[in-house]
Design a protein that fits this description.
Helix content is 46%, strand content 15%. The protein is built from 14 helices and 10 strands. Helix 9 runs parallel beside helix 11 and helix 12 crosses helix 13.
C-alpha cells in the first residue's frame, strides 16, 4: 500500500543532501501568540528561507538527484510563484536551464523574482489553459525533467525537512508536540513534514490548513477519495490554489492527518498583520493560514503545538492593505 511513498529515511537523506545549501530557519515564540492561542506555539519561520518560502527544499532535493545528462537538459515546472522561485534558484545554483509555467495573475513579485533567478517564464490563463499539459509539452520538446510542485517523492522528502527541523528543535528542548499545523495546497509540505513530526512524536495530531475556497484536501479526507475544486474561485491565497490533492500526497495524508481546517481570506489577512506586529515577519496570505487557524482557536485543546509560516512573497499594495485592514491585530 505504501510502495513508492517517501519514508522518514528519505527525509533524513534529503536533509543531509540539502542542508549545507539552505538556511536553518528559526523556531520562534511570542507571549501574545501563546495567550491568543491558549497554548504554547512553536513557529517555524520558513518565510525567512531562500526565496522567502520552503519550496527551495523540495526543488533542490529533486534537482540534486538528477543525473549529469538530466541536468544538462534542464528542468520544467509549473507554479503560481513560490515553487517557481525554488526551482529557478536551485537550477541557477547547479548551472541548469529552467522554464517555469506561471499563471498570468501570479503576484508580480513572484514573476520578477523568478526571472531574476534566470528562469524563462511561460504565462498561461488559469481559467482557460492546462498548465500541466503546457509544462509536459515543453519538457518533451527539450528532453527536460519535470519538477512537480508537490506530487513527487523527492519533492515531498525535501519539504519534509521543515518538520524534521521543528521536531528536532522540540526534542532538544524536551517539549512534547501535541499538534502540528501546516498550510496545504497540493499537500506536499504537510505530507512530508507530518511524516517527520509523527516519527518523533507518534501521538502528535497533524492538520492541513487550506483557504476555504480551496478545501479539496478537507473534502477528500471526508470522502475517502481525491476531490476537485469546481471552477476557479478567487482567493488571496494564490500559492494554495491547487484544485486537487496529489495522488502521492493524498495517499500519505489520508493515513496520517487528523483532519483539515479552512480559513477565510480575511482570517489570513489578519494573521499577516499579526505576524508583522508581533513576530516581525512579512507573510503572504498563503504563508499565514496556519497562524490564522491557531489565532481562531483551533489549537486551544493542546499544550504545545508547532506551526509553519510557509511564505513571505507578497506584492506591496496587498501587504499595505492587510496592515491597514487590521491596524491593531
Amino acid at each position: 500500500m505504501n510502495e513508492g511513498l517517501p519514508t522518514v529515511r528519505d527525509i533524513e537523506d534529503a536533509a543531509a543532501r540539502i542542508s549545507d545549501w539552505l538556511i536553518t530557519t528559526p523556531v520562534l515564540e511570542h507571549d501574545v501568540l501563546n495567550r491568543r492561542a491558549n497554548c504554547r506555539v512553536l513557529v517555524k519561520a520558513e518565510s525567512l528561507q531562500h526565496t522567502g518560502t520552503f519550496k527551495i527544499r523540495g526543488a533542490l532535493n529533486r534537482l540534486l538527484k538528477l543525473s549529469h545528462d538530466e541536468r544538462a537538459a534542464g528542468v520544467v515546472a509549473f507554479s503560481s510563484g513560490n515553487h517557481a522561485q525554488g526551482v529557478a534558484m536551485a537550477a541557477q545554483w547547479l548551472g541548469m536551464p529552467a522554464t517555469i509555467v506561471m499563471p498570468e495573475d501570479a503576484p508580480k513579485i513572484k514573476q520578477l523574482n523568478t526571472r531574476m533567478l534566470g528562469a524563462d517564464i511561460v504565462l498561461y490563463d488559469r481559467a482557460r489553459d492546462d498548465r500541466e499539459q503546457i509544462a509536459a509539452d515543453i519538457a518533451a520538446e527539450h528532453g527536460a525533467a519535470l519538477v512537480p510542485a508537490f506530487d513527487h517523492p523527492d519533492v515531498i522528502a525535501g519539504q519534509g525537512t521543515v518538520g524534521l527541523e521543528l521536531a528536532e528543535f522540540a526534542r532538544r528542548r524536551r517539549l512534547d508536540l501535541r499538534s502540528f499545523f501546516a498550510p496545504c495546497g497540493g499537500g506536499g509540505l504537510v505530507a512530508g513534514s507530518g511524516l517527520a513530526v509523527k516519527a518523533a512524536f507518534p501521538d502528535c495530531e497533524i492538520f492541513a490548513v487550506e483557504p476555504e475556497a480551496y478545501d479539496d484536501t478537507k473534502r477528500s479526507l471526508e470522502a475517502g477519495s481525491r476531490q476537485v475544486v469546481v471552477g476557479h474561485p478567487k482567493s488571496s491565497c494564490d500559492a494554495l490554489m491547487a484544485p486537487m490533492p496529489g495522488a502521492i500526497t493524498f495517499a500519505m495524508n489520508r493515513e496520517q492527518l487528523s483532519g483539515a481546517l479552512t480559513v477565510t481570506d480575511a482570517q489570513a489577512t489578519h494573521a499577516m498583520a499579526f505576524a508583522t506586529r508581533y513576530l516581525k515577519l512579512v507573510l503572504e496570505p498563503s504563508g499565514a493560514v496556519a497562524l490564522a487557524a491557531v489565532l481562531s482557536g483551533a489549537a486551544k485543546d493542546y499544550a504545545c503545538i508547532g506551526i509553519v509560516l510557509s511564505g513571505g512573497n507578497v506584492d506591496l499594495h496587498p501587504y499595505i492593505d492587510a496592515l491597514n485592514a487590521f491596524p491593531d491585530p
